[in-house]
Structure formats: C-alpha cells, structure tokens
Design brief:
Helix content is about 70%, strand content about 0%. It is mainly alpha-helical.
Length: about 70
C-alpha cells in the first residue's frame, strides 16, 4: 500500500520520483502515459506545446534501479 510523505515546496520532481516504491513508480508511469495520450489529443486541437519532463525522469529512475539490481 502506498504511503504519503509530504514534501517541502523545494523538493524537485526528481526527488519525489526517487522516493516512490517500485509499484508506485510503475503506477505513476502508467498514469503519465494515459495523460500523455490525452494531452496529445488536446495538442492537436489547440496546437499547444507539451514537454513530458516527468516521463524522462521516471525512465531514468527505472534504469538506475534496474542497474542496481543487476549488481546485487
């Protein structure tokens, strides 16, 4: 079960992602994929720029965790 840890306003998205459990991180990634598809549809209608920085951070964290498991 997920637990809520309040972050200060200074905590970066990268720090917040790093503190998620594996299942929470994967759930968050799944949700971002859904939102990305939704935003793509909105973007077609409004021609608004969209930069999914959170997706890059999630993938980076998953890669780091995978590498750490490979060494253990």
């Amino acid at each position: 079960m997920a637990q809520y840890f309040p972050f200060s306003d200074q905590a970066s998205l990268e720090d917040q992602i790093r503190n998620l459990a594996d299942d929470e991180l994967l759930d968050f990634w799944e949700e971002t994929q859904y939102l990305s598809k939704f935003m793509d549809k909105e973007q077609e209608q409004e021609e608004v720029g969209y930069n999914p920085e959170y997706e890059r951070l999630i993938l980076h964290e998953l890669q780091v965790r995978t590498c750490r498991r490979g060494r253990d």
